[in-house]
Design a protein that fits this description.
61% of the residues lie in helices and 0% in strands. With 96 residues, the chain is mainly α. It is elongated and about 80 Å long.
Length: 96
């Protein structure tokens, strides 16, 4: 796997690319089994039961980030509007 990664510059080594190369080297996971663990333990044995909690946490974090970004955009738009108003009162003429 490291040999395949060495063929790609460090900047291009995304998690997706690393996963793709890992799958090429190790093969796909068997149904119900975790790759590199053999046929014994199942996915649930190794990682526990799956839950939507991490996804819910991620969704909430993204919603918070969107709200913060929207607030920043609104604040910047208000600043732009006040600057345009100031320039208009000062006699500045805008040309298209």
């Amino acid at each position: 796997m490291n040999g395949r990664l060495a063929e790609v510059s460090e900047i291009e080594q995304t998690p997706e690319l690393r996963e793709k190369i890992f799958k090429e080297v190790m093969g796909q996971e068997g149904h119900g089994h975790v790759r590199t663990y053999g046929l014994g333990p199942s996915y649930r044995d190794v990682f526990g039961s799956t839950s939507n909690v991490p996804a819910d946490v991620t969704i909430q974090a993204l919603r918070n980030e969107v709200m913060t970004t929207n607030a920043k955009v609104d604040s910047q738009q208000m600043l732009i509007d006040s600057m345009v108003e100031f320039l208009a009162k000062s006699g500045f003429r805008f040309s298209p």
